[in-house]
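Lab notebook page, bench 4
Experiment: in silico fold of construct C2
Operator: M.H.
Input chain length: 748 residues
Purpose: comparison with the prior construct
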Amino acid sequence: MGWRLSTTSRFAFARYGLAAVLVAAALGIRLALDPVLETYAPYLPFTLAVLVAGRFGGYGPALAATGASILTSWYLLLDPPNSFAFVNAAQPASLARFAVVGVGISLITGQLRRALAASRQNEAQLRRFTESAPVALAMFDRDMRYLAASGRYRQEYRLGDQPLEGRSHYEVFPEIPERWREVHRRVLAGSSERSGEDLFERLDGRTQWLCWEMRPWHHANGRIGGVILASEDITFRKEADAALRQSEQRFRALFEHAADGIYITSPEGSYIEVNARGLELAGCSRDDFLGTSIADFVHPADRDRVAAEVAQLKTGQPTYGEWRFVRRDGSTFHGDVSGRRLPDGNFLGILRDLTDRRRLQEQFLQAQKLEGIGRLAGGVAHDFNNLLTVIGGYSRMGLEELPEDHSLRGSLAEIERAAERAAALTRQLLAFSRSQPIELRTIMPDEVIRDFEKMLRRIIGEDVELTLALDAKGGAIRADAGHLEQVVLNLAVNARDAMPAGGKLLIESSRFSADAEFVEAHPGTAPGEYVSLTVSDTGTGMPVEVKAHLFEPFYTTKEPGRGTGLGLSTVYGIVRQSGGSIRVYSEIGHGSSFHLLFPAVEPGGEPVRTAAPAVPHTGTETILLVEDEPAVRKYVRRILERRGYTVLEAVDGRHALEAARTIRPDLLLTDLVMPEIGGVDLAAVFGGPAGIPVICMSGYSDRLWPVTGPVVSFLQKPFTPTSLLERVREALATQVPPDHPESDSAHA
């Protein structure tokens, strides 16, 4: 099994082997140049061998070379026959001197070799330190020429692998400003300079932020040899700082201008930061607010919840909920609060004022309430109209049949007048429920009110001072002129009743442009142009609880017998039906003001209506009568049969279809609201393009059942025998003749 020398052993073997080779070489030179060397320098080759061995091998190989040289020379002295030179008496002394010199050379070369190795090691360590230093390092002479530069220096200044040693600093960076050149001169004079941050603008347009320090370096004699520069590129840090400042500015702007109140409290519940909206909600200054506790801001009724909320936040769980708060002036409000714990242990709370939302909810609930009441009122009016149709109709028929001197005529006339008053009452109910049929036309509110002024003054009386300030600037609206007069009349009468001792009544009009801010504050409106109509009085005003029920039908604060409670509900229905909105502002002792907004339209002419020719009331056609109310059905049949018509009765839509299979009617007269098959479906079956004329009757409005077609018309209940007969003749006039081709094809 072989053996292997270690690295150290191999290195030692090589050094000592070198010494042996050198001694052998010196011996050969000595023998070759003898007797010249014998005379002048007998030990010169051996001395050189010792020097070389000490230089490359160190102290041990040099001593070994010295010993080997002495032994070789001694051999030559003891055995002259083997020497080419003659041994004289001086040779032993020379050999002794050589031994001393050899040992001295060995010691000196060994120390020099160790010093050189240490120097190389120190140089390597210094270079590693320079290359791994966290800053860029460069060394210059007095002329600012590079002596050395670290790798980081090359990297930060993007110098690559280009040679720097010997080149001028100003040649490498010609863009160096004069202020830096002055710094170099001061450092070369012995000063030390530094800068925490300095801007360096490069030739290629880049900018670098640098943190640098310069010091002079000295020769061994103390003379300044040049400059040492240590620098660090802090561009990224500066950019990060700028981004952080910008982010903080954005956060501060968002914090201060947020629409919600933002609060930061300590874990103990004391306010340490708040934004402008938060101070506005609290109603106090920043100095007064900071340092107070959460409980100081919370309504007393909710303070028992604070401890539990703080405990939950300390566990890291967010909190949400609605709270009541008390401002510094004592006013209260509801707020929606979300809270969470911040990373630093403090608490963040965001408060949203719910005042506007709760007001909108109340308005929405009120609108829903009025809508429900309106539907109920419309249903009541519909059923009531059926009764009034029979009562008024039979009263009129009785008056037509009885002689002028009959004793019952007076009673029938009173019944008819009562029916008419009841019909007016149902029309008011229908107006509130927006079921009253209206005729929308382009009208000028200013002109309608001026034409109505004389009648209005007579109604309100002389003790009420009426002032008109009409300035709609030619603004037009789409509305029913008669209904607009009724709106103004009802508001004026309501104002008069609120001023029993007299007062002032002001009616104003103007053009108004609604922007996004107005729309947000007034739900139910849309951006655009409006005509504003305002009716204001100096009466007693209304409390909040009265305003909450103001537009409800049959709600009144007047004495019994002085009002039906339908005046303002009628106003509400007409305004909404005309596409407008109404709002009320009133305080006790400061009167009331009703603000009406109608969408403005471009003024335009209306077609001129001509008087219709007289329509005959008799006929021989067959009429299919569909009505689920027996009394109304009997009343209508009697009217038609008395005028010569043949009447087919049906109690609902299904029976009407069965009756039409046996006899083809000339006209369909049907109620709109019926079980199973209603009037809308029947009109679609019978009133097609080649069908028969259709008349739809209802106590509701035709607006709720938009039945359209060339042969479909609508008759509002209650109606008189005359209006029924006229509508029948008008409808029959649109009938396709029986021998017309379309008629045959429709019933093939």
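Observations: The chain has six domains: 7-129, 133-239, 258-353, 358-432, 441-601, 622-746. Residues 81-90, 605-612, 738-748 have pLDDT under 50 and may be disordered.
Next step: discuss at group meeting.
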